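For homework, think about our next protein:
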Amino acid sequence: MKKTIIILFVLSALAYLGYEVARRVSVLRAREKEGGRRGGAAVAVEVGSIRTGSILETGQFTGSLQPRYSFTLAPNVGGRLQRLLVDVSDTVKKGQLVARIEDEEYVRQVEQAKAEMLVAQASLKEQESSLEFARREYERADSLLARNIASESETDVKRSVFKVAEAKKAVAEAQVAQKLAALKAAEARLAYTKIIATWESGDDVRVVGERFVDEGAMLKTGDPIVSILDIGVLKGIVHVIERDYTRMRLGQKVEITTDAYPGKIFPGTVARIAPQLKESSRTARVEIEAPNADGLLKPGMFIRVSVVYGEHENATLAPAAAVTRRENQMVIFTVDADKQIVHMVPVKVGVTNADVAEILSPKVSGLVVTMGHHLLSEGAAVTLPGQKAEGGSKTKPRGKAEDDGKKQGA
């Protein structure tokens, strides 16, 4: 029962609201029909001047910031994380020691590899000595054979012993090379227990973005430890639609704003433009480089980007508030100050910003209504600021807050 009452109350309220909206729309339409040309009451309006000047044609986009370079430090060997020398937001220099993996096992591997290397080197020396002895014996037997003192069979035996000694020396040399490689591998694994931050390009100083583990953690090869970010220059990533894609150029200057710093403008430059549009969204990725020497901008921030396409000089400019829509076309109301009436002029609008709108056609000049045009029609009578309205009192220019308040109450 209670639920039914609530539903009936809501429906009644909506019906009343719809009635009020219809009634007010009807009143406004009646005012328009009975205004100006039929001798209705003059409408008090605010006006502005049409002027000639230049206006920038810009594109507006939204996106987010990313570090220019970023990577994750991870160990090349497994083990217990013995020391972690940096934390989030710490600065890191190129070549700086960031962490240590417990190295006792890797020290023993290096010592074992060194011992095996010494054994292999000793074996090589032994084989070199044996080879030298076999060489002299073979040369002596060959000399005796030439003088018919030694038999050919004896010389063959000495030659065979010499060849075997040569082969054993080659094996010993290979074993030395093998043990040397094993030693270098063990030394490399030991060196990997020291996690060094290094990179090739960008600034020599970066910052720690994230920490993924704590001291004492058991790590496998490739487990992330910390992320390193270069935020001296940030990348602003925006996606542009097909209409704007062809107007983007490398090196274009842009202005970046963010909610974190209201009213502050950061400069940037178009650095990279994707060579294709994504078929799913019909947009292309554009990267903007934003210098960040003071470190105010941070990766992940939401940004608004204004890209200047060009400048229209000697353009006819009207206050942006003067342009309104009537019957699916853009119009302005020009003021005939002598007759105290307005003329509704359909216009073709070009570049528009928060302050002014470019009027492409027709050619217009003089004063235009900037506030109050929702009550006007062609030939409507108006009262300009500073002139007497119908009760003898003078109208006066109103501030924006006052205008907005009165407009909402109309």
